Amino acid sequence: MLFAGVSRLEQDRLVLAFTQRAHVREFALREGINNAIDGLRAVNQLFVSQPAVSREEFRRFTRPLLERYPYVMAYDYKHFITADQRAATEASLRLHAPGARVTEFREGKVVPAGARPRYRVIEFIEPYRGNEAAFGLDSLYSSADETARQRAYDTGLPMASPLVKLAQTDSKMGMLIAMPVYRFDASLPDVPARRAALVGETGVTLLPAEMVSMILMVSGLHQVHQQALRIQGVGLHVYAGSQPSAETLVYYAPPPARRLAALAPPLSWLYRRPPAPLDVPLEVAGRTWHVVASMSEDILVADHLASLSTLVLGILTTLLGTAYVHSIATRHRAIARRVEERTAQLNEANRTLLLRERAIESSRNAILIVAAADDYPIVYVNPAFERSTGFKAAEVMGRNPRLLYRDDVDQPDSELIRSALREQRDGHATLRYYRKDGTLFWSETYVSPVRDENGIVTHFVSIQHDITAMKAYETELHHQATHDALTGLANRVLLHDRLQQNIAQAAVRGHSLWVVSIDLDRFKFTNSRVGHKAGDRLLQGIAERLQAAVRPIDTLARLGGDEFALMLLPEEGARKPSLEQLQRVLTSLNQPVVLDGKAQFIAGSAGVAIYPDHGADPTTLLERADIAMFRAKELGGDNYKFYTHAMREQLGERVQMENALRQALERREFVLYYQPQVDIGSGRIVGMEALIRWQHPEMGMVAPGRFIPLAEETGMILPMGAWVLRSACQQLRTWQSEGHRNLRVAVNVSARQMAEQGFVGSVADVLVEAGLDPTCLELELTESLVMNDVEHAIVVMRQLKKLGVKLAIDDFGTGYSSLAHLKRFTVDVLKIDQAFVRDLTVDPDDAAIVTTIIALAANLNLQVISEGVETLEQLSFLRAHGCSQMQGYYFSRPVPASAFGAVLDENDARLAAGSAAPLGVALHS
Question: Is the pTM of this model over 0.70?
Answer without folding.
Answer: no
